[in-house]
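Try it yourself: sequence plus protoporphyrin IX containing FE, in.
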Amino acid sequence: MTATTDLDALFAPDVIADPYPLFARLRDEDPVHWNAAYQLWVVTRYEDVVWMVRNHEAFSSAVIRTDERPPYPPVNPGDLHLLHGVRAFRGDQLVEQDRPAHASMRAVVHEFFTPGAMEAWRPFVRAAVAEFLDEVQDKGHMDAHRDLAAPLPVRVITQMMGVPERDRDHLRDLADKLLYINRGEPHRLQPLTEGIRGMIDYVSPLVDRRIDTPTNDFLSVLAGGESAGVFDRNQVLVNAALLLFAGHETTMNLICNGLLALLNHPDQWARFVANPERYARLATEECLRFDPPVKSTQRIAARDVELGGRQIHAGDRIRWIIAAANRDPAAFENPDSFDIARQPNPHVSLGAGIHYCLGASLARVEGQEVFRAIAERLPGIRLDSAHLEYEPSIQFRSLRALPVRWT
Ligand code: HEM
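Structure, out:
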């Protein structure tokens, strides 16, 4: 494959396979780059990214509601009538709100996701990981994506939402459709719309019940927000689905990209296997930094603002590249080396500022438990494929499969 020389080629096959050379060039040559192909700014330096994300007054998160431009990459023209519904749904997500609405919505859900509250979920996560590994251990091989990384987050989130066990498969089907939100395929609006409608139909009656009889699950927290007048019904439904939007593919990618990084660095894997208990937390942070689950995310300029010597105008859209900032030599020593004992490790893989990932502690618990269990149970694990493929997404760094083998 020939290396892409076009700085705008965010979706070129070699860039999807390995975005780091392009991101390094952007960071060195044009750190606040105007991407003419997709009409957006691309910000790659750590300092610029952190400044921008913390400056929520100048850089709005209401990307979907504000941005009327056609989606990129393009969708099938025959599906454009679905765009309005998808935008209306996504525009109500917490991550799309600016202050003051964001602060009051986040206050409703904050308690449920504190580090202490998520620590209480660790035994559940550990048991689920053990169950998935029990299924495959004697076979000597698995697709770590299909058999572990994909089912684990859905199992945890459906439990948090209070979804009965018998409905888990249905929710998994819906979650798979919702994943199209981050894809580049031209037909993506079809499955996405089915996923959104399916979620609304499924969650609506559950919310009705929680309003009458609250329990301690996450739907009851949202229903409480509706009773208190912070959320309207649509926002409750959207934000219930948001857990699947936000916590599924992200965690899946942490598990796959992290495991791949560990296996591609045998010295680090040996170090980890020798003491999983000691390294689980630091190694998970390094996995998050080195090959982040979310490559980039978006903002819209709320006013004219200068960044890195470039003039950004109100209404311009901006992509901040987490995967580039995390490898900025100005912020990290030897940024391209994978070091499971790296400390400090101020990566931006979980965002920064007021939209800092709500599920950060949960994602960490899941990563730590998975990597630790694999190191303890399958220390001789190795890659079982010379060719790995990624989804064609600018936002997510998503492997399609991760075949592994052990003896
Ligand atoms: C490794 C896994 C994860 C990664 C890498 C990740 C990454 C991120 C990032 C980068 C943001 C900031 C987006 C922005 O500022 O535009 C974010 C926000 C968010 N994340 Fe995560 N996330 C992960 C897991 C989760 C999980 C498990 C959940 C919930 C169950 C979750 C729920 C959210 C929510 C609700 C927001 C929006 C917060 C707000 O706007 O205040 N995430 N996440």
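One thing you can check immediately is this: Residues 71-289+322-405 form a domain with the Cytochrome p450 fold (CATH 1.10.630.10).
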